[in-house]
Amino acid sequence: MSRVLVIESSARQEGSVSRQLTQAFIAQWKAAHPSDEISVRDLAVEQVPHLDANLLGGWMKPADQHSDQEKNALARSNLLTEELLAADVLVLAAPMYNFAIPSTLKSWLDHVLRAGVTFKYTETGPQGLLTGKRAFVLTARGGIYAGGTLDHQEPYLRQVLGFIGIHDVEFIHAEGLNLGAESLEKAVTQAKAKLALVA
């Protein structure tokens, strides 16, 4: 049995294409892997605060010096990190906002990229500690950006996932969603077909 962690980051609950892709992925994955355990964390519903002084204090200060706010921030980071550590498969649903990922997803990443836990520093540079995991990134984009200079999603997420040791990463883009009804339908259909293959 594998554990699948799905991270939703769309600000919209209704009409979200990235959520449509997530639901398609979950349905197809369950059909192909009925014994797997799938958990979903919705960052629009349970928002993760931005990196702040309380979280830095929780990470860096001795436990007996933590304020209540630092204890709470550290507990939240521990929970999110433990979910990631326990997962065999990570699914990130990421609509493109202003050429990049939603700030909610960035906040989640800021909580789980932790020195000594998900990566470590060595004499030869940083080393990711989450080797052996797979990741799928489901994107929804109004225009066509894959492979272009305005795509700040895929290069960033490949780098940050690789930094913590996740190198088996597959991107499934639904692009051109705002270029008319025909383009939207085609993009969603093609993305769902790719999801069926990877599941």
Quick take:
GO terms for molecular function: electron transfer activity; FMN binding; oxidoreductase activity, acting on NAD(P)H as acceptor; oxidoreductase activity, acting on NAD(P)H, quinone or similar compound as acceptor. 41% of the residues lie in helices and 21% in strands. With 199 residues, the chain is an alpha/beta fold.
CATH class, anyone? Answer: Alpha Beta
Derived from helix and strand composition plus strand pairing, the structural class reads: alpha/beta
- Name of the CATH architecture: 3-Layer(aba) Sandwich
Task: Calculate the terminal CA-CA distance, rounded to whole Å.
Answer: 15 Å
Shape: globular
| Beta-strand segment tally | 7
The CATH superfamily is known as Flavodoxin domain
Question: What name does the CATH topology carry?
Answer: Rossmann fold
Radius of gyration: 18 Å
Secondary-structure element order, as H and E? EHEHHEHEEEHEH
The tally of domains stands at 1
Beta fraction: 15-25%
Q: Estimate percent helicity.
A: 40-55%
Q: Kindly report the oligomeric state of this protein.
A: single chain
Mind describing the biggest β-sheet? 5 strands, parallel
| Biggest sheet strand line-up | 2-1-3-6-7
Protein name: FMN dependent NADH:quinone oxidoreductase
Domain Flavodoxin-like fold: 3-195
Function: Quinone reductase that provides resistance to thiol-specific stress caused by electrophilic quinones.
GO molecular function: electron transfer activity; FMN binding; oxidoreductase activity, acting on NAD(P)H as acceptor; oxidoreductase activity, acting on NAD(P)H, quinone or similar compound as acceptor
